[in-house]
Amino acid sequence: MENNNDKIICSELFQKHRKVEVVLYPAVLAWKEIEKSSKRSSGTCESEHRQTVEVCEIVAVHKTEDEVDAQARSHTKRINQPSQQYPYAFTVSYVRKTRQHLWRCADVTFHCADQQICEQWIQVTNEQLSILTNRPKNLLVYINPYGGKRRGERIYEQKVAPVFRRAGILTDVIVTERANHARDHLKTEANLDDYDGVVCVGGDGMFSEILHGLVTRIQTDHGVDQNQPDAELVPCSLRIGIIPAGSTDCICFATQGTNDPVTSALHIVVGDSQPMDVCSVHHNGVFLKYSVSLLGYGFYGDVLADSERNRWLGPARYDLSGFKTFLSHNHYGGTVSFLPADDNVGHPRDKLQCRSGCRICQHKPSSKDEHDEASEEKEKPADDSDRGWSVIHGKFIAINSASMSCACPRSPKGLSPSAHLADGTTDLILVRKCSRLDFFKHLLRHTNNNDQFDHWFVEVHRVRKFRFQPWHHNFVPLEDASERPLSPDLSPISSLQETCDDCTAESSWNCDGEILHHTAIQVSVQCQLIRLFARGIEEQQDAEVAV
Ligand SMILES: CCCCCCCCCCCCC/C=C/[C@@H](O)[C@H](COP(=O)(O)O)NC(C)=O
Ligand SMILES: Nc1ncnc2c1ncn2[C@@H]1O[C@H](COP(=O)(O)OP(=O)(O)O)[C@@H](O)[C@H]1O
Ligand SMILES: [Ca+2]
What we know:
Blueprint: E1 9-15, E2 18-24, E3 28-36, E4 44-54, E5 58-63, H1 67-73, H2 82-85, E6 88-97, E7 103-112, H3 115-130, E8 138-143, H4 152-166, E9 170-175, H5 181-189, E10 197-202, H6 204-221, E11 239-244, H7 250-256, H8 261-269, E12 274-283, E13 286-291, E14 294-298, H9 299-308, H10 317-328, E15 332-340, H11 359-362, H12 367-378, E16 390-402, E17 426-432, H13 436-444, E18 458-470, H14 493-498, E19 509-511, E20 514-515, E21 521-532
Parallel strand pairs: 8-9, 8-10, 10-11, 11-21
Antiparallel strand pairs: 1-2, 2-3, 3-4, 5-6, 6-7, 12-13, 12-21, 14-16, 14-19, 15-16, 15-18, 16-17, 17-18, 18-21, 19-20
Helix pairs in contact: 4-8, 5-6, 9-10
The chain binds ligand 1PW, adenosine-5'-diphosphate and calcium ion.
Adenosine-5'-diphosphate is lined by residues 144-148, 176-181, 202-206, 209, 246-248, 513.
């Protein structure tokens, strides 16, 4: 055994029926077969095939206590078996990256002749793992047993708990008994100091509960008033892990590229960290909700409202309600005002997708910039003609604010394919009144590679704040001709007033899968307020790194 230079430990061991040289470097475990060469009298030569695992992707190392080894140690018959000569063994569990962002926990077992060497390997590997301080040791787990196909508990017990056990993570598990159980427990009861993170087993609605519980708790603990739209919110130190067990699971899909419970568990174990923007939603200075994925008025609000009546259908309820809402083809009048983002965060149509280590998300605006902007705003009269704000009056089939791509299995590139997870902005998508066929074409483009923003009736803006005011019977603003799109549907101002009956209907807001009870809202993006146990979507060529 060597112990020089950057090698921490190096031994000749046995793996299955092959003799291998195993080396632990400071950041990498590597092994390669040493072949017995019949042609060379001197003995061994190295095979080309070296396998490597990064230490930060090792789940755990354990002494191997299986039947084969027990047999081997008991000095029975099969004297020529390698396990007889190498009766001590340890197993390294590690992350194996397969296709399409799917991770699996793989095991490799190394046999040794000497008990001390075996124990030394376990010890030094564990020492290397203990340097990785970003790994959670204690987690608080909430399971929604009624999310998605009602498989939350089974998914956790069968797929996730074994991975946590293997990694030596301690958990407190709460299976929720009612809606808002998890939120209320986090808000008032949970002793947050006991945990390094919170795990949500459920869908986007369940995540929303955890988000509200955690963010509200932190603000209360720090004396921050959430009702102040300009309050500087305190970021959460606890990270949130998402085990997908819901219907859409877009927050999980958009932050790790797949909806797979084992993959999520492994991102938690290795201690990944992905900052994420949170939108705060207010109504006349009163706090309503937070949102991290979709805030949708019109189409997605109506789909959600209708789908709640068919919850028994499970995830299929969205297909039914989507179809019904599409046929009803409603549109809604309203005024949207927004504060555009700075140019340095790109544009929703720039095709620069947010990926692991995204450069745009690393440019976090300093709190000083935000403060300057906030105080500048206060000095101005609070109406929509404020400098920097744009105002659009119109009849909309959908108003969607996507703070992240909102990619999900139904729409693998999402509502706004170039939206960023942590840039402090949201992509505001306005879909104007158009024909059913046009709207169908727009929807269809969410499922293929065509640009869903390339329609005369769709516009998209990257914004830091926006407001929405639905039109009322006694308040239908005169349209500013300069704000209109170049549309065949343009109507003169007089006819807008005559036809206002068909545009004063109100929809509701879909806020990460929860209905909001107010339609007039003010939205402000809180840059990187929370962190997930995720790393964003990795570029595809990163796959197959390990064995
Ligand atoms: C012609 C067929 C066209 C299909 C177009 C599909 C576009 C799909 C875009 C989906 C974007 C979903 C954004 C996520 C919303 C979730 O927060 C919410 C709640 O998810 P949950 O039930 O809690 O997992 N789900 C829905 C459908 O509103
Ligand atoms: N024990 C429970 N009983 C009923 N509803 C619950 C329970 N726990 C959580 N919920 C609620 O269930 C709703 C849907 O949960 P979610 O996990 O997002 O599933 P889905 O993706 O199918 O909508 C959420 O609004 C959440 O507040
Ligand atoms: Ca964003």
